[in-house]
Amino acid sequence: MKSFSYLALLSAIAPCALAGSGVDGVDVLIDIIQPQNSYPQTSDKLIPIAKPAKAEYEYVIIGSGPGGAPLAANLAIAGHSVLLIDAGGDFGHLRERESPALANPSSERNEVSWGFFTHHYENEERALKDRKLTWLTPDGKFYSGQNAPEGSTVLGNFYPRYGGLGGCAEHNALVALLPSKNDWDTIKNVTGDASWDNTAMRKYLKKVEKVEYPLPEGTEGSHGHDGYLSMAINPAGIPAQDVKLMSVFAGAAKAFGVDNSALTAALNGAVSYAQENSIDYETGLLPLNLTTAMQDAMADMLVWDMNNDDPDRDTKKAFGRLPQHMDSKNFRRSTPRDYVYDTYAAKTANGKRKYKLDVALHTLATKVLFDTTGAKPKAVGVDYLFGESLYRADPRAIHTEDGGVPGTVKATKEVIVAGGAFNSPQILKLSGVGPKEELESFGIPVVLDLPGVGENLQDRLETSVNAEFPTNFTRILSCYYLAADGDPCWAQYVDADNTAAEKGTYASNGVVMGSFFTSSYSDDGEHDLWIGGFPALFNGFYPGYSSNAATVANKNWWSWLVLKAHTRNNAGTVKLASTNPRDTPVITFHNTYEGQTKEEADKDIGALREGMRMAVSFFENIPAIDGAASVFWPPKEVRDNDESLDEWIVEEAWGHHASCSNKIGADDDKMAVLDSKFRVRGTKGLRVVDASAFPRIPGIFPVLPIMMMAEKATEDILGAKNPGHCKPRKNKNKNKLY
Ligand SMILES: Cc1cc2nc3c(=O)[nH]c(=O)nc-3n(C[C@H](O)[C@H](O)[C@H](O)COP(=O)(O)OP(=O)(O)OC[C@H]3O[C@@H](n4cnc5c(N)ncnc54)[C@H](O)[C@@H]3O)c2cc1C
Ligand SMILES: *[C@@H]1O[C@H](CO)[C@@H](O)[C@H](O)[C@H]1NC(C)=O
Ligand SMILES: *[C@@H]1O[C@H](CO)[C@@H](O)[C@H](O)[C@H]1NC(C)=O
Ligand SMILES: *[C@@H]1O[C@H](CO)[C@@H](O)[C@H](O)[C@H]1NC(C)=O
């Protein structure tokens, strides 16, 4: 096992110099392949690396994220032969993947990191103002900030994705929330397909989830109890042991208009008891048995189940607990990857494999193959390259020569593309399905002119408000985030004798609650703002962000994250950079004024400004128990007036929920890529089931909506009277393969 002392690790990662006015931006210089501590996976229940085992399957699915993975398992369980392809390996038992608190480090693990460099703006002058913009330095490192070494070239804005079994559900922050009613109803209205009605969609939540958190009495029927996805809530005792953390929570509640008197009374009571009994709560944790009153007070302040079925769920201002895709016993991440593993590993009574599900890993799909002899092109197979780290979003692949062993696999029923919002349009375009002019400019034979492929890309706008405190958060004091050996927080987490809050910091994603509210710029009254926070320094994505967010040495930071939902910008694009399937595409979001009318951009920015002002007031209302917060990001002079704060948002806002680049749309919409059953318009035997299918970016968090889509697609595929494919032809030689 290779390991680093944390001093060595810290010197390898330039510490953030953020406390100043921000002139240098995040100012981080880091190796392309980051120095990382590595521990063996905690279990050998892993799917082995293999190329497609057979020449032919009924269904071939490209991409094993929350779109593709559950669909593959469902179709196999329904009795079909299925091949699930993913470019990466199976790292489902990496420590970082398992513990909810290690989600950020998980998103930069070298084994699974796909770091795209995207463009918030096409206009370079605009782009250069971003304080976390990343450059390639002359000596081959990544520099992010405003002070790039002489001779560096701009790469863009780092965008973490997961290249491996399970997709981004393996490294996301686990927050699993329903989209809003209007998100589903929009699809119903646009397509006229009533099966998208928001009340009808709830049945897919029930299929997916295995709810493991206590529900308010009488609401059990509105949830699922035997799905593949465990859903749990952070044990309330975890934050309650930290006096400072509770004071931050109390401040947020007060600013948000939630009565915090019972909580502050309980907090003061615990502090006086600790003082009288010489319990050190300033550099240590309160004993769990002193936190009961605080836990009760918190329970009364929070909406107990944010995935409830109340008519006003999407509109009522709410301070809510966050359901997460993890289990409630070991507090390990639970994902579609586990569902695929269980389906893959299931055995019959006589020890044979129960389902016809093969999983091809280290397999980069390069092209969908079509039979073009019929009236419509029909997807009949997939070309791939077999090999490790082939895709150039993988930092290990950047400097490697072309390689990989080519192969082809046939699909007798359907090909389903589920590579995510960046890769699905790239795969379609490489296969000849996309805007004619773009394909022709690369010399790609046009199978179908579909102008909407790679258009309509959308993302959330996000910013953060960061502060430092004179003293530390005791909750994270002993945590190394695995950056050094002998991490006490890991030991506490995996100790089988510990239950619930006794498991400590790593049994929680660190986000105590979410604030859901509606800005004065909302068009429909549904929540368009969300604030959540954690004891770390997070101000957007850049290479090395995760090791700077939570460190061995710095324990006094807090970040409030502000997410703007229902953004109006749909001007983003995914365009080919080359015909080499190993290359990443050119991803341009055309943020704010570059992609929107002034009126619409003003509304999105205005909403985010309201969110940021709310986050600042969360800090300002902290009761005087354990030292005042000093907000440093954005700096005071930026926050002083609306104009400069708006400009900050234009320069800094980022996203990480990219969606909508192969939108579902109406029959008469030329830019619609998919029909309401996920079928690629104008083709047969081809669907797209992932984040790219949404016409409008859903909810505040997309992962649960994508999993619900996968259930709906399963039904569409299995239940369809005319599943969109012809009977297999007798004479296969007639098929013309491109
Ligand atoms: C840091 C971070 C935190 C997040 N936190 C949350 C959160 O708390 N809650 C939430 O709801 N959402 C969150 N998200 C977003 C959410 O996880 C994603 O939107 C979601 O996973 C997208 O699912 P998908 O199926 O569309 O694609 P992906 O999850 O991207 O999966 C695509 C898969 O396809 C594979 N693939 C792609 N191209 C090919 C190819 N050519 N050949 C073979 N395989 C290929 C990839 O390896 C990958 O496994 C977060 C995202 C990030 C990056
Ligand atoms: C959908 O259409 C109905 C009927 O016209 C309308 O009342 C409703 O507001 C629409 N919903 C959305 C989200 O567009
Ligand atoms: C809390 O538990 C400790 C033992 O862990 C015990 O010594 C103490 O008396 C308990 N305190 C209260 C208030 O129950
Ligand atoms: C906070 O924690 C760090 C790291 O353990 C330590 O060096 C520092 O002295 C602590 N600060 C205070 C005020 O206790």
UniProtKB/TrEMBL annotation:
Ranges for domain Glucose-methanol-choline oxidoreductase N-terminal: 420-434
PROSITE patterns (UniProt xref): GMC_OXRED_2
Span of the signal peptide: 1-19
InterPro entries: FAD/NAD-bd_sf, GMC_OxRdtase, GMC_OxRdtase_N, GMC_OxRtase_C
Keywords: Signal
Signal in keyword set: yes
GO molecular function annotations of the record: flavin adenine dinucleotide binding; oxidoreductase activity, acting on CH-OH group of donors
One Pfam family linked to the record: GMC_oxred_C
Family of this protein: Belongs to the GMC oxidoreductase family.
Full protein name: Glucose-methanol-choline oxidoreductase N-terminal domain-containing protein
Organism in which the protein naturally occurs: Xylaria hypoxylon
